[in-house]
Amino acid sequence: MTARRVASALRAADKRAVSRTPASGAGALRQDRIYQAISDAIIEHRLQPGARLREDALAEVFGVSRTGIRKVLQRLAMDQLITLTPGKGASVTRPSAEEAREVFDARRMVECGLMRQLAPQIDAAALAALRALAEQEQQALAARDQSAAIKCSAEFHSQLAVLAGNQTLASFVVQLCSRSSLILAVYGNAGNLGCDCTDHDRLITLLEGRDGEAAAAFMAQHLDAIEGSLAIADSPQTTPDLQDIFAAYRG
Q1: What are the residues whose beta carbons fall under 8 Å from the beta carbon of 41, sequence distance 6 or more?
Q2: Beta-carbon neighbour count of residue 223 at 10 Å?
Q3: How far apart (Å, rounded) are the C-alpha atoms in residues 103 and 98?
Q4: Is residue 225 within 8 Å of 196, Cβ to Cβ?
Q5: Dihedral (C-alpha) 177, 183, 189, 190: value to the nearest 10 degrees?
Q6: What kind and span of H or E run contains 163?
Q7: What's the pTM?
Q8: Do strands 52-53 and 82-85 pair parallel, antiparallel, or not at all (unpaired)?
Q9: What is the sign of the dihedral through the CA atoms of 55, 152, 164 and 225?
Q10: pLDDT in tens, 22-52
Q11: 83 FRET partner, CA 20 to 30 A, in 76, 180, 240, 243?
Q12: How many whole angstroms separate alpha carbon 107 and alpha carbon 112?
């Protein structure tokens, strides 16, 4: 991905952040909860790339109208987590090999630069927050909770961007991490989380030492390792059991 295309994507991410400002009211709050539930299911690989998301089935699962579900699906499509196809409906986005390479190119360009920006200004509270996330990730791995570990890993990278203080870049990194989770689901081996959680500990140590250049270099190595762990392989399109996946939502 060229610098010009990254800049274009950043502008698009900024516009999405503005357009996603939640409206007031109980209906908007419910839509936000449904959006988060579906987003989490995608990022945690409970909904696989290519899986169809039928409006009527989702409306039944969440107990809302198809109009409300349609609004949520439009938000998810804006974040590139799902694809809306005329005449076919919604499905979880399945990134191509080219898109996968572009996402990691963009992550290297953005996240390595953020390490140089973050290292000189990071404080004890920020370091503690990062250590807490890294600890949660290790606990999830120890418990063999792959979904939780994937989510913790994405949150760790997103938090690094937030702490650097650039909200536009932070919004872009959140989107890239979400798309990386889809890429792992398509091209990763079974049980592959992408991130080695010990790498996150190493990043924290480098940031604590205020060594921005070393942190940037290690971030590049870390992202290279994730991309290098992937292998292009076809996976069949599935029809998910939405009642089972979102059982916790209904309480």
Answers
A1: 47, 245, 246
A2: 22
A3: 9
A4: yes
A5: 70
A6: helix 146-164
A7: 0.71
A8: unpaired
A9: negative
A10: 445 777 889 999 998 998 888 777 898 899 9
A11: 243
A12: 8
